[in-house]
Design a protein that fits this description.
- 2 copies of one chain form a homodimer.
- The termini of chain A are far apart.
- In chain A, strand 2 (about 75-80) and strand 3 (about 85-90) form a beta hairpin.
- Helices cover about 65% and strands about 10% of the residues of chain A.
- Chain A is built from 6 helices and 3 strands; from the N terminus they run H-H-E-H-H-E-E-H-H.
- Chain A has helices at about 10-30, 30-40, 45-55, 60-70, 95-110, 115-125, and strands at about 45, 75-80, 85-90.
- The first copy, chain A, is flat.
- The first copy, chain A, has a 3-stranded antiparallel beta sheet with strand order 1-3-2.
- By secondary structure, chain A is an alpha+beta fold.
- Chain B binds a DNA duplex (20 and 20 nucleotides) through helix 4.
- Chains A, B: GO terms for molecular function: DNA binding.
- Chains A, B: It holds the Pfam family HxlR.
- Chains A, B: This is DNA-binding HxlR family transcriptional regulator.
- Chains A, B: Keywords: DNA-binding, Transcription, Transcription regulation.
DNA sequence: CTGAATCCTTGCAGATACTG
DNA sequence: CAGTATCTGCAAGGATTCAG
């Protein structure tokens, strides 16, 4: 299908942007990332604090997702060279931008909790 | 820790609501669900149309996620008893409600595409 | 066309242990 | 305390096949 397609630079750019957007989407649209963003909010939290806040997340998932968020520039990681080490995480501006979305989803969940519960009961037949 | 906890009905309800909310969150906060919701939008689409719209989704993932969304009352599934069968999917009101959130995330992605790209380059060092 | 069921592979995610 | 590495299982997800 790409055969004989006029490959203008603009088109190439659009393709790259689209695939990147899709990639970011895949990275960030998962529950742990959302929960981290939601729990960070305007605060600055340590690794262990986050671990305690987010019920059910494992050490490994937390580090993995924090790395991912850092890589994409949604959180900043600051290391205090003390002993014991103290590592803190904060949302960046893009991170705070996404927080609005996540907040929206939380609101949505609570708004429609009843609808959904009813739908589930209806479904089990 | 639940030992000796005053289990008032209100508290029990809150707990149930919380765990349900968390469950819904886990169900819905995944990329395929988001992409389905985004692509459905205000339209009504057939299974095969959705399959074509959402690049990279497998037959199985599409059915699984549609079932999940149907179960939670975010989409309705209408079967036309023709031959060959024709099955259409549409967002419900809760589904359209969530669409606002998903749209927000799409906007966010495009807004910060540059930031993120830059952050990634910075990270690879 | 839609969807369920089957196999089969892969990679996720938990547990554990070890460094700085 | 924070992070990495290794091992292991189990479940997600792809390909295929069959049914309605």
């Amino acid at each position: 299908m790409t055969k004989q397609f006029r490959g203008s630079p603009e088109e190439a750019d659009l393709r790259r942007a689209d695939s990147l957007a899709r990639e970011i989407f895949s990275d960030v649209a998962n529950k742990w990332a959302f929960l981290i963003i939601e729990n960070l909010g305007e605060r600055t939290l340590r690794f262990s604090e986050l671990r305690n806040e987010i019920e059910g997340i494992s050490h490994k998932m937390l580090t993995q997702n924090l790395r991912m968020l850092e890589r994409n520039g949604l959180v900043v990681r600051t290391v205090h060279p003390t002993v014991p080490p103290r590592v803190e995480y904060t949302l960046t501006e893009p991170g705070r931008g996404l927080r609005a979305t996540v907040d929206g989803m939380c609101d949505w969940t609570h708004t429609y909790l009843g609808h959904i519960e009813a739908a589930r009961r209806r479904f089990e037949t």
